[in-house]
Protein: Hydro-lyase
Amino acid sequence: MSDPATVTPAEVRRLCRLNEFRQPTTASYSHGYVQANLIILPEKHAQDFRNLCLRNPVSCPLIGEMRPGDPKVPEHLAADCDIRTDLPRYNVCKDGKLVETKTDIIEEWKEDSVAFLIGCSYSFEAALSDKNLKPRHTELKRNVPMYRTSVPLMAAGVFSGRMIVSMRPYPTESLEAVREITRPYIRAHGEPVAWGTKGARTLGIEDPDGDHPDFGDPTEIREGEIPVYWGCGVTPQQVVIDSGIEGVVVSHAPGHMLVLDQLVKAVCTSE
Amino acid sequence: MSDPATVTPAEVRRLCRLNEFRQPTTASYSHGYVQANLIILPEKHAQDFRNLCLRNPVSCPLIGEMRPGDPKVPEHLAADCDIRTDLPRYNVCKDGKLVETKTDIIEEWKEDSVAFLIGCSYSFEAALSDKNLKPRHTELKRNVPMYRTSVPLMAAGVFSGRMIVSMRPYPTESLEAVREITRPYIRAHGEPVAWGTKGARTLGIEDPDGDHPDFGDPTEIREGEIPVYWGCGVTPQQVVIDSGIEGVVVSHAPGHMLVLDQLVKAVCTSE
Structure:
């Protein structure tokens, strides 16, 4: 394959369908294009999940939704795209427990399956890197550290829970630039929700040093830097799993997302 | 005036303009029509306020927004409506402090004034009453009790703060009905965010008995009832005032709202 950054979204999806692409899409594939989180659940709970997204758009920025039983992604988001095969890797949960990781979900797809596409922080990380504010975990080639918080989500039917946030350290003097750069990415978690030790306290996080995240990898907070916290797409996944709804729930495997034909600027920003 | 419930929104607004209507609109005027909260602030902070609403739609459900310096409400929301005169009563804040309560704001309106209309819980209270679940404060002819919480809003530029919630007691066995009835009112705070003593703890409320609210009036929680908490439109007002932004900020006086020509069902629900 040529330079990952210039591979088209359609080519990534084609290779996924052939099972020839199994790595994380987040490793700089298709620069500038939207990568979306995926959640598939039974139609019975679709309205509650839609409301969860509408009521908690910072944690759950809804980009698109598909018709019950229809595995075809809306054409304007991704041409000729089958949600059952065109991601590199899927997590399959049954009755609230992760049971399998697979490269397609033909078997799991049902007549009442509804797929939701959710915005992802990868979209604003590229913007930060472009402005010489590369996220630390990217520099360290690790996963972003993520934390459970004490902040309740706005309940929606069967779904409720607490926010999960991602954390990226930045020098105090860069905070306003980091806020400004990420602010327009309203359908990709947008600007930070809190920062610094005071922010960590507000969120109920007991590890402001980045050493013991609840998910992802530890990071390094260097001299003069503060932790900066953003909404995180693991929140809706965790909420749906924790709700213990009956039946099959499928999500993308972490980092193995759906690459859309739309540019981040067109879908995720308010500009 | 004839039966308040059947007075048209246009008639309420006409009488406001003539200073012949100075009472709260919430006393059953124009049954079925949207009553909107109002916030007017300088254009400089309009984008941040818009983001505050988009990021916190349960506390700040945005119904409409006007062009900078234009006092005319969009025709589809209210015909021939001037935002400076057509509410019964306004609160005027300067540099973060309430300085005056007035029946028009012709003097306060500037070239850079931007008006925002926000959904209001009065919209779903009628639905509850229609189903024999009349809110207690309505029965007692008091103001709804409201509480400051420890739940942080999703920060947006100069605006940040904590959620304020309203509380209505209901019998435990009515909880699911109350949730279902209010759930569709997505642009009027929607379904409750928490309930019961556990919910009060999650929100950081130390008065689950309803005796000492932070705003509004005390209420009665009777045998077998639990407190039920909803998002509340006082939140954005308080956030804007607490932010201490320079210049004039105007809001409706509590209960003295703008009555729109649109039906609640058309504007505030997702049905």
Remarks:
- Helices of chain B lie at 9-17, 46-55, 122-130, 136-139, 175-182, 196-203, 234-242, 264-267.
